[in-house]
Amino acid sequence: MVMMSFLKSLFSVSNDAGQFGSDQEVVEGGKPYKAAADGVFDVGALPAELLLYILSWVPAVDLVKICSQVCKQWCEISRSTSLWKIKCLRERKYIPHLMGPPPEDFMKFYFLSPYTRNLLHNDRALEEFKYWRRTDRNHLIVEDSPEGSKPIQNYIQINGPVKNWVTSYVKSSIEQVVSLLEEGCLRELLDDVKPDIYISVWCAARWDCGSIFFFTAQLLNDEKNVLAEFSEEKNLSTLREDWHKVEHTFKDYPPGIRYVRVNMAGVDTQFWAGHYGSKFTLPCVKFVFQKN
Known about the structure:
Helices cover about 20% and strands about 30% of the residues.
């Protein structure tokens, strides 16, 4: 719907005074185009280069799901290397002087590039503990919605469903180790460019029970020895049902980083039976390239 409104705003031409009439010509790049009798441009009359530029502003998902279904020409343009190269460069998903040779498939790179997406898997707990190693099966579960806490959507704009992990009166944790090379990162970029690595997570307590949240992020080398570490222990008793974001950016870390380990843990402070401990969701590990 948003995409169609966007296209209409680009192609619609009013017949009001001062606008192009049905008998007038619109000149673009020295080539005349006739406006239709109803005052709307014939999109098919646009040169391919101009149409490619216009479509490059359409959201990526709409390009794949909608634009590619309009006609043969739109399908070819919406899947072309030229269009996806423009999008990658404009949105800084590909930075030539930092990321080396261009990818063979810019469209695939746009969606799968390890340099612009969250490298943690199952960050919304939608697959419960898949990709995560947990220390205790009885004292750490997944909630469909945060019981005793406000919805996470009150604090962050996010599309789609989000679940959260919740702890108990026994300190319990989950952990995930990301292999940067397996995710597609280049050794040379990690060792020479060393882009900032941003990590974050959202946490909360219940309104009726205090809790403590523990967060640790480590940068590891090939042997999984710790080269850099961030750790924070947060008493959520005063925040109660409000969600809080814990975040940190690793800068100027030593060369040799090959893995990122993220560990999240929690426990309630009143030793209540059940799952009244800290809640957490949406952990994130992302690269941040500074603009030159």
